[in-house]
Amino acid sequence: MERRRENQSPQVSIARILVEFLEVAITSIVFLKGIYPSDAFERRRYMNVVVHRARHPQLRDYIHSAVKGLQPFIEKGVVDRVVVMFFNNDNIPLERFVFSLTVSQSYKSNVEETDLEFSLRSFLVKLPVSESLSKVLPRDCRWEITAYFCTLPQATPSKEDLWIPTDTKQWDQPPLITPIKSLSSEPLSMQLYLEHANILKTTPRGN
């Protein structure tokens, strides 16, 4: 792992570590959901935890490019949520894994990267447990990485930016939320939770 550079701001350090973590965590989520055959992934160690890495270059590059493209926005504290969304052919979400994050813009001290990595490691340990909390998805489901911003970015940081407005439909009712793991600290606060459609609140209307 790349270490902290001299004169690097705390926000840059946090964003760099967080982007690397998100790439691993998102790959782990896709593996757990069984969207692809298990042999499409290979086992590896990250933060002393056994995780999975995509073998297929296009899958690996999509995840890497998507989260890497968020790095300048995470540094500025404008990314509110990073979501791994699974949806059907009608573009209606079936399930969402949500990373809700806040990077402190007022934090000026040096980032203790070892401590931050240890905290993020606990999310990777919790992810396999979430498999029992999530739904079995249909074979023809699709998925994407979606980001929600606190404010709209003023400019695109790269000509190769992958982030475009999504046309995914939203649920009619507030979703059911299942917490998985949370981190609360001065430089970084983050929650990981599951969202499902709240079908219990959907009742037929009378004539």
TrEMBL record:
Keywords: DNA damage, Nucleus. Pfam families: HORMA (PF02301). It is found in: Nucleus. GO terms for cellular component: nucleus; zeta DNA polymerase complex. It comes from the Eukaryota. The keyword DNA damage applies. It comes from Aquilegia coerulea. InterPro entries: HORMA_dom (IPR003511), HORMA_dom_sf (IPR036570), Mad2-like (IPR045091). Residues 12-194 form the HORMA domain. Its main location: nucleus. PANTHER family: MITOTIC SPINDLE ASSEMBLY CHECKPOINT PROTEIN MAD2 (PTHR11842), MITOTIC SPINDLE ASSEMBLY CHECKPOINT PROTEIN MAD2B (PTHR11842:SF10). One of its GO terms (biological process) is DNA damage response. This is HORMA domain-containing protein.
